[in-house]
Amino acid sequence: MLPRKSIIPEEFSLPGLVSRMPRKPVFRDRVNKARFIAKNGSCNLAHKNIREQGRFLQDVFTTLVDLKWRFTLVIFTTTFVSSWLLFAMYWWLVAFAHGDLDPERQNVTHCVTDVKSFTSAFLFSIEVQVTIGFGGRMITEQCATAITVLILQNIVGLIINAVMLGCIFMKTAQSNRRAETLIFSRHAVIAVRNNRLCFMIRIGDLRKSMIIGATVRLQVVRKTTTPEGEVIPIHQIDVPTESAVASNSLFLLAPLIICHVIDKNSPLYDLSAMELQCSDLEVIVILEGVVETTGITTQARTSYISEEIQWGYRFVPIVTEEEGVYSVDYSKFGNTIKVVTPGCSARELDEKPSILIQTLQKSELSHQNSLRKRNSMRRNNSMRKGAGSTGGLRRNNSSLTTPKVQFFTPTDGGQTLNAVT
Predict the structure, then answer these.
(1) 219 contact partners, CB below 8 Å, separation of at least 6
(2) Where is this region: Disordered (predicted)?
(3) Backbone torsions φ then ψ of 10, nearest 5 degrees
(4) I need a labelling partner for 336 at 20 to 30 A (CA). Which of 10, 63, 81, 243 fits?
């Protein structure tokens, strides 16, 4: 039995209408992933399954500098105590071989005076290596072996002092300590500047000592797939900045806004405001320079993920001139204000310049309307104040009216009452 056909044609049925309706692009929720660079600049990377551990021992000094402070102090103390104990054993053996420990040979000249036990040998070892002369124990010219041990301990002690003290100095003068005073804005912004869509951040230096030869580099890190099917989990793409910054002429005297023009060569060229929130890109900012006081190269890093990029915002000005001095208000360092910005991508703006023109016209009209409203509110307030002051004057004038005064004037026929106001 054939199925009964519907009276309504198939193209006008509900499934047919739904299939012909234009569908909006569906964006998947952004998958939470670990960021490559943390906000404080540390690299979020773990090294595992390193088989060639001996390579770290080939560069002992750098390994000691990279260790944490607690491990460095433990190694520092252990090294000195071990060297004192080792040479204390040598001094005890020298005294034992020469017979200085024999109580029957007290009249014989000793190699080292007053070394009668291992404890006294340990104390003499500390005096020799730390160059503390208490005067109670001293070496004599009777033993050539004792003189050799003395020279050897002095050389070893100097080497240990140089390495350990140099390690501690480098740890206290590390360049990342200077980077703590180089700050970045909490958020990055995307807005229109000079009729171009731009990605902007703000950087600043809290110290008065400047960073010489400061340069800023921007990189976009994202997961990409090549046409051959190769998956690159960390694909680093260089992002050019303005010509003034790219030419190494960054003068970081006051907080600066670093601007990247989103053009055809930018990895942000095809991203709109909605697509940016669903993307998994990460913008890394690297600030490098030489510390003016120490001459050590320092580097400060941070990153911005899609949730930390504000579309349609602009940084507020924080540098003002007060009594002939430029003042920087760091309390507003990361503050932004909302501005009219097209929500489409930079590619669409290049293909349809009318979008930007219409957006700017709407912004100008809204600005004019806000000014008119503000002026009208000011007029109304002034008129209300004027009306209030006029009413008050009238009330004051009414209260100050001259009272009527009555007096009598004598006449021939009697007294007549005259009233004078």
Answers:
(1) 236, 237, 238, 239, 283, 284, 286
(2) 365-421
(3) -65, -35
(4) 243
Structure tokens at 51: 């088989």
In the chain, where does the domain assigned CATH 2.60.40.1400 lie? 179-350
For 150-182, b/e burial (b = at least 16 CB within 10 A) is beebeeebeebeeebeebbeebeeebeebbeeb
396-407 pLDDT, tens per residue?
A: 544 444 444 444
For the cut 70, the answer to whether the pLDDT of residue 330 exceeds it is yes
CATH superfamily of 179-350: G protein-activated inward rectifier potassium channel 1 (2.60.40.1400)
| Residue 405 burial (C-beta neighbours within 10 Å; 0-12, 13-18, 19+) | exposed
Strand partners, 259: 200
pLDDT score of 87: 93
**In whole numbers, what is the pLDDT of the chain averaged over residues?**
78
Collapsing DSSP to helix, strand or coil, 343 comes out as coil
- For domain 67-172, the question of CATH label 1.10.10.60 is answered with no
Each residue's pLDDT tens digit, 139-168 = 888 888 888 999 999 999 999 999 888 888
Tell if the pTM clears 0.70, that is, is over it.
no
- CATH 1.10.287.70 range(s) for the chain read 67-172
What per-residue confidence (pLDDT) applies to 419? 42
